[in-house]
Amino acid sequence: MSPSLKLRRSKFVRFLISEPVVISLIFINTLVLFLDEFPTTHAATRGILMWIDYGCVLYFLVEAFLKIRIYGFSKYWLSSWNRFDFIVVILSLPSLLAPVTDVHAFAGFLVLRLGRLFRFFRVFRFIPNADMIFVGIRRSLRASVGVFAGLFILNFALAMGATMLFGDLAPEHFGNPLRSIYSLFKVYTVEGWYEIPDALSQRGASDAMIGMLRGYFVLSVLVGGILGLSLANAVFVDEMTADNTAKVEEMVGKMHREMSDFYTSIQAEQKVSYERLQTELQKMQEMMRGSGRT
Fold first, then answer.
1. Ordered structural domains, the chain, with CATH
2. Which of 5, 31, 184, 203 lies at a 20 to 30 A Cα distance from 234?
3. How far is CA 220 from CA 184, 193, 209, 223, in A?
């Protein structure tokens, strides 16, 4: 018997990689990560939460190893969820060095520590209809690429113009193109878009400059904030609901075909009934003619 078949038949191994156990460990690990980020909790537990997190990482590593041994790497890699789990486990590996070294001393490890957070996203696989949701998101993102690219070009152009016009007046907002891009992006959200021009108007600028500043911001809000983001949102939502639209169209098409078949069958029955009626009338006429002769 092959080792993979032995592992597959082992009750303990099946229990270890079963969905209830995986879900429980994901939620426990998420709770541990959440509590460990509170300074008071971190100090009170004295490293206990770190060791629980360490054990969760080891479990996820063993889970991935066992699944690869049982199904084979090629079959294991065919599942998109397995690929996602494997990448999350790889990103979590630096946290295994925590008990033996001070990972805070390495800037790269500090960034990789964020990989621990991706473990929480494994919960998505247990959401009902998660595959359909992610398919809709991918389709929506593909359809929105052109809109997002247009918004970026618009933001870039307006930011360059704002840098040239208002860079000396407000260097903290428009001192360079990157600052201008960020400032204009905040304007696109519409929330508090008037605060920047109102604050700059109090710096002693001329009335013409103040009018130009306010007009520039109004134009940015109308074009980028209201029209641009509304268009992007409309495209995204339309693609997200494309599955429902396709189902409705399929149901309507099926209903139309059934009604057409029903109408055709009724016509055929009416034709048969009409022919039978004509035949009966002809027989009655012949009988009347025969009785009249006699």
1. 3-126 (1.20.120.350), 132-240 (1.10.287.70)
2. 184
3. 7, 10, 16, 5
CB atoms within 10 A of CB 140: 18
Is the pTM higher than 0.85? The answer reads: no
Q: Are 165 and 212 in contact (CB under 8 A)?
A: yes
pLDDT tens for residues 192-204?
677 777 777 777 7
| DSSP secondary structure, the chain, as one string | --HHHHHHH-HHHHHHTSHHHHHHHHHHHHHHHHHHTSHHHHHHHTTHHHHHHHHHHHHHHHHHHHHHHHH-HHHHHHSHHHHHHHHHHHHHGGGGGTTTS-GGG-HHHHHHGGGGGGGGGGGGGGSTTHHHHHHHHHHHHHHHHHHHHHHHHHHHHHHHHHHHHHTTT-HHHHSSHHHHHHHHHHHHT-TTTTHHHHHHTTS---HHHHHHHHHHHHHHIIIIIIIIHHHHHHHHHHHHTHHHHHHHHHHHHHHHHHHHHHHHHHHHHHHHHHHHHHHHHHHHHHHHHHHHH-
Both tokens of 97, joined, read 């060095």
Q: Model confidence over 59-107: pLDDT tens digits?
A: 888 888 888 888 888 888 888 778 878 887 887 777 677 666 655 554 4
38 against 285, higher pLDDT: 38
